[in-house]
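Hi again,

Forgot to attach this to my earlier email, sorry! This is the prediction with flavin-adenine dinucleotide bound. I've pasted everything inline since the attachment limit keeps bouncing my files.
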Amino acid sequence: MNSIRQHVIVGAGTAGISAVEALRKAPSDDSITLISAESDAPYSPTVLPHLLAGRIDERQVALRSADFFDRARCRLMLGRTVTGLDAERRTVSLDDGSRVSFDRLLLAVGSEPLMPKIENPDRVECLSFTRIGDLRTLRTRLKRGSRVAILGAGLIGMELADALAHLPLGIRVLVVEQEKQVLPRTFNETLADEVLELFQNKGVAFALGRRAAALEKTRDGIAVTLSDASAHVVDLVVACVGVRPRIGFLAGSGVAVGRGILADRRMATNLAGIYAAGDAAEGFSADGAAGCHPVLPTAAAQGRVAGANMADRPAGHEGWLPANFFNFFGKVAVSVGDASAGPERESLKRSNGAGHAELFFEGERLVGANFLGVPTDPGSLSMLIKKRVAVKEHRELLLNRPLEASRWLAARAQRGERVK
Amino acid sequence: MSLQTVPVVRDTLAIDFGACPPGCSECVKACEQHRSVARIATLHLPEVSFHGAITCLQCSEPACRDACPTGAISRDDAGVARLDRGRCVGCGACAIACEWGGISFDFGTIRAAKCDTCDGDPACARACPTDVLRWVESRRLFERFSHPDPFTKGASLCPGCAGELGFRLAFRVIGDDAVVFVGPGCACALANGLGAEATTRLPSAMALMTNIPSLMTGVARRLRQTGKRTRCVAFVGDGATADVGFQPLSGAAERGEPIVYICYDNEGYMNTGVQRSGTTSHGARTMTSPAGPRLKGKGQPAKEVPLMMAFNGAAYVATANIAYPEDFEAKLRRALDVEDGLSYLHLYSPCYVGWESPMDSVLQISRRAVETRMFPMWEADHGKFRITHPVDQARPIEEFTSLIGRFRHLGHDDLKMLAEEAQARYRRIEALCQAMPFNGR
Ligand SMILES: Cc1cc2nc3c(=O)[nH]c(=O)nc-3n(C[C@H](O)[C@H](O)[C@H](O)COP(=O)(O)OP(=O)(O)OC[C@H]3O[C@@H](n4cnc5c(N)ncnc54)[C@H](O)[C@@H]3O)c2cc1C
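Structure tokens for the complex follow:
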């Protein structure tokens, strides 16, 4: 028998918990310690807009039931922030000055919000929306009729705008975005315009193609000056201009970082026995490009791979593929892969009052797809793209019946057949 | 119960994927009726003649559970992944994470739903008018193979070997009261070991390729004389069975020796570097039946050894296939019961190395061989024939050949010929069933 190992996982989000599941898949007497900077029961920040909109309440969002951690023999250390890592002595240091030793370590600390470069002489409070603490702050600040400026029309900004528009508080929302469309890099212009219209119909205002340049305190609120010199007075400003991996505490530790913590396909860092997964990691895409991919399915998959390797069950991450799923006012918007036009690419479109579908092909294979208001199976489509299955022969079927056709094609490919 | 002791043996909703009657959606209706939102879907694509049902496969490490941000999906001790719809926020992460079409996202309420097997009594399976959906109690399945595995630790065969699986399953049915006979071939590496590796706990004998049934005859007669009921069972490849060793086998059948002879047919001499044998498929490329500008693999159709045996005095003859373990078990039990003559089982055992297929493909190939009618499943009990797995509509031959590299050189016409031969083979068995029908033992 191997000697008993101590596994320490920093971060109790999706990546960290998937690693616990994978570590406990095989029998062993290894110990597991899971550390989270927050004192809340482990949760995912994805729930924030849903909590805000009242679709679910805080008691219903624990990632695992309390007895899960007992059964998994996993020691939970909540409300403890890891401030440093000593790779030589194999310890991490905590904010209370104590140290925790490890044989194997997983860094699953997630991401932190980016702050926009903006003139702010009055030091006006600029909120963010990535942790449950941010939600609580926002809730206390929101009043009936509040005017809210959201900086950034990316995934988080649009989810926040959607949640605010759902609140029965008559909140007036302005979304500022420097690109000319909402959800840039996620949806192409056509679909983005449709999404924009959905929001505008619900009274959300947009300033597209403009940047927020300055914030100033005025008598009746905060003046947000845009790059075209127009000014908008609001009560609250929330920055949703993106996230970046949380790597600050690793300075001087010897762990190699780029944009995120550099990890190979096994989610191993440059230092033996130290792994990274989830938003914090810079792993690989399905095409083999290095990069960060801060979404749930990737955090889950990378966490599983890291946990398996920590338990000496060799595993590799097949690489992530962009995939997004939104519910905007009852209409589902889905994007999978790289849904952008290109010289080597052919696209196929279908559109009617109820919905839109657009597929992109390169040679024989599908490379990306966008849908709005059309039932699809994003997992099956992802599989077809990732595994480079030749599907072009069935492109009309995929366009007209995406749900059924993608499942049929994916199931055939999963069962090891060549699709003709 | 701690996480690591979740039982492996589980009951399963078995789906014969792609075998639904066109237009039938009884399962979806039943599910909707019982569970308000359907958790099973039918894929009716007449454009490509595909009709199938799809639902959650209950993965052991469910990607949907790991991706769910509210902890709404959990896996219970029975191995079922459950979704608490009250905690679903409709974010779709599960539907992105599952690449098996297992999440039934309801685009009406914009909430996910998924199969939880109706706690072991699935309404869909009850409603299915065909055999496409079946609730399989794996506990029962395992009971059929209740004897301990007869081999010691370690195996010197290739990982993913169909023959090995067949060998192990056979002796989990037969049990300990048997003598195992093998010939020079892959199976002897498992039965007699190579160096310090696997060997069997049972008494075993390795004969020559040319005298296995003769040796068995002697041992079986001696055992009978001493009043023992110990069975003599051969597990021998197709080379020794169909070619060099056929003469003593034919003789033993004709004399009515009460031995059980299992031929694991991997269609070639695989152990010695993939040479053609009498049972190698027509058109298959091997070392001694190459494919090139002049030759197109083996030039002759395979010998039909089970038919030869059925007309050669064997009391019981059956074809079997490791993709259908319950059927194999039932036939093996019948073979063990027969004492008034020789029992011959012909076990289809693709060799992915020699067939140039992926390592994990042998079960898929085995199943496709049946579904395309390449390998008919039948038995002849004292001269009465029946098809044990009727295939009403053969799948296109390409669904079989595309899994197998040694057919890669075949063109459209060659495949057509293969398909026609397969149909003829199947119809021949059908004709025998009509001429000499089976009506109970
Ligand atoms: C508003 C919002 C909406 C989103 N919506 C979606 C969506 O719809 N679909 C989707 O796929 N993704 C969505 N995401 C992204 C998704 O939530 C993340 O990709 C995912 O949570 C990443 O998981 P993780 O385990 O890497 O990090 P997290 O879940 O963020 O967990 C990080 C953990 O690390 C802990 N931690 C951080 N620093 C330290 C430290 N120094 N010491 C100790 N502990 C530390 C934290 O307390 C936390 O427990 C959304 C994100 C946000 C913010």
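The pocket of flavin-adenine dinucleotide is lined by residues A 10-16, 35-38, 44-46, 48-49, 81-82, 108-110, 129-130, 156, 159, 246, 249, 278-280, 294-296, 299; B 91, 93 (CB under 6 Å). Chain A is about 25% helix and 30% strand.

That should be everything now.

G.
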